[in-house]
Amino acid sequence: KKHILILSVDNKLTSWEDAVIPDQKFKYRLKDLKVDIIHPIIKSIVDKDQKFKAWLNQLEVKDVSLGKLIDIINNRKNKQQLITLCRLLVKQLNLLTEDDWRKLQKLQLIAKESFLPPNKFYLSDEYHPTMAIGSLVNNFPELLTSEYIEDVKDLKNWHLFFTKIGVNQLPSKDNIQSIIDHLIDKNISHFN
């Protein structure tokens, strides 16, 4: 099992652990995500031969589904690949099902020093949240980075994407007190 190699779409041999079977539902540019796609000849065999497909499944060669892509990206903890996946998804929001949105709630987003689930973040001002926390508090720790945005014309889609996967628009009760304290300190120091 360790030494089995599979031919990829780039005509290179790749480890079975890194190979994926392309899925027609999503038209992701998987190369941008650094995911090895099995060669079309291998794919045609998989489509015709259930024993061969069963063997690949035994090897845990993954069908590319949104859940598998999220698992791959979460395991790699690679900032650029995460941004690329999010950009590809935002361009194809109409393809996402309710099940896809539930899976996306497990996607780990970029924090200052690590990766955290969406529900730990708040929309920064660039995403036009209900309440612009960033303009009130300069260093609010869980503000979503604007690094995801590639084209400002897509801001509405970014807002929709992040709120549907669980990024907060409004501060929680716990954070409201820290915002108030910060604003009081800011105003007191401003008048001194």
Structure characterization notes:
The protein is mostly helical. Helices cover 42% and strands 9% of the residues. The strands form three sheets. Strands 4-3-5 form a three-stranded parallel beta sheet, with no helix packed on it. Helix 1 (40-48) crosses helix 2 (50-58). The longest helix has 19 residues, at 173-191.
Give a short summary of the structure.
The chain is mostly helical and 192 residues long. 42% of the residues lie in helices and 9% in strands.
What is the CA-CA span between the terminal residues?
Answer: 70 Å
Cross-sheet strand order for the largest sheet:
4-3-5
Count every helix, treating DSSP H or I runs of 4 or more residues as helices: 8
Helix residue percentage: 40-55%
Please tally the β strands and state the result.
Answer: 7
Fraction of residues in β-strands: 5-15%
Radius of gyration: 21 Å
Quaternary structure classification? single chain
How does the major sheet shape up? Answer: 3 strands, parallel
